[in-house]
């Protein structure tokens, strides 16, 4: 064997040795750790799903490394204009503020017809979404990335009618007439709230395409609610006869949930008194076990 061949052979041997050591000392242990983490993740998820299925609520709802804070002006808007926020205890208020801050940070707000988006608009719209998903583990909706705000009702070129609000899954957008959105909160006991209604649609549609624990609980709860109504004709008749829910609720199952949600939030005591089983299903679907609900 000549010298160059010997050198090449020695180099290859050293390289093979280094590669073998790299594989045995680093790649294999890292692979084992990653596989271990994956198995642990799957086991935790299976346990969480099992717990959620048995108890109709997530095992953990609020878990944060560090809570984000609102500035004084933003917090003042919640304290003065959002009745639900004021019903929460101090700890829940901090959690609520964290979620509002995250919603505003992760969502694009777009004003139409020269409307300037104000801090009040951002806080109240974000607070509406956070209120409805406050019992969810995953509270930000994948379906909503953009909030579009018009000064008042607007004309839709798509279906050639005027709208006060809509949810558009294709654009991942939710749209509001600010005038009508505000009116929904100024009169807080008439069971007419544009923000609650449209975010209700967003929650319903988002759950249909998601597999997180809160969406799973929501879907199971809604299925149970509809089965209950199908199996109890007298309850269906009482719903219509009572006129507690406006007739728009009976358009389809999406409008049914959105209208029930408005009543659930604005007049919970009357809802619970008139239709206790439906109230129970709504409370379970949303994991709404705070602020006196």
Automatic annotation (TrEMBL):
The chain crosses the membrane at residues 26-44. CDD domains: Peptidase_M90-like. It comes from the Bacteria. InterPro entries: MetalloPept_cat_dom_sf, MtfA_fam, MtfA_N. The keyword Transmembrane applies. The keyword Transmembrane helix applies. Keywords: Membrane, Transmembrane, Transmembrane helix. This is Zinc-dependent peptidase. It comes from Winogradskyella bathintestinalis.
